[in-house]
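Lab notes, practical 5.
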Amino acid sequence: MKQYRNFISQFCRVAAVAVAIALLAPATSAQENKNLKLHSENGMLNHLAVGLQTGMGGTGIDVAMPLHRLVTMRAGIVGNAIGDIKFKAINTVDQVTQMQLVEDDAIRQAKMVDKVELAIKPRFWNAFIMAEVHPFTSPFYFSAGLFAGNRTFLHFRNTNDGALESLYDANKKVEDYNQQFRTNYPPVGLKFGDYVFTADENYNIDVKMKTWAVKPYLGIGFGQSMARYHRLSFALDAGLLFWGKPSFVFNNGKKIKSSSKESGITHFISWFSAYPMIQIRLAYKIF
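Output from the prediction step:
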């Protein structure tokens, strides 16, 4: 629930800033009537609006300028600012059943570890440039653009730093045994769906969910990113951010292989090559 409260809090702050901007705008009707013609004329790069947005893509700021009476360009930065999401992950050492390994001290120590608390750290920031095409007299429009930024969508790490020495030792024992006797025992670590996150040499789980650095975007919207006759405008944009097939990667860059290709998180990831985006935007037209 913490992440949802943070989301609501961010949106309220965005709305409060937008309302404050609107209240600071010139209030006299005479001044507005004087500038009415200026603010309604068509042209290239002859207007500028500053916007605040929030939604599934995160919270951010952008600027918008017209390229044509039907086309508006926007550029800015957006990202997640929600807190960590914590959950308990199951130890997989119980899957090791071979007698020689079970009797090993490293395996016995690892079996004493039941569940470990992991924290998912959303840290996803992108700069973007986007074109909006308004072909109708209605408020509906089409949008397309490119997002570019960090590749890490989620970062998994244990909350108790350096506390997973027994899991690291047990996994090294299994790796050595598999190599020596040509067996295929599964790794010892923490289970996340069809994936096993093993501890590193610092006795931590340090895994990142990676996507493309450059991500195309296609969407549709309702509203205006730049008001034609007024200062303040509102828009709702929904679309897909194409970021490739996500992968889970250790801190050393090694990709984690799934234990199954037909079920669970692996099946979900296989078609999750596009991230759904819904953004709400409030903008103030400077000139």
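Observations recorded by the TA: The chain has six helices and 15 strands. The radius of gyration is 25 Å.
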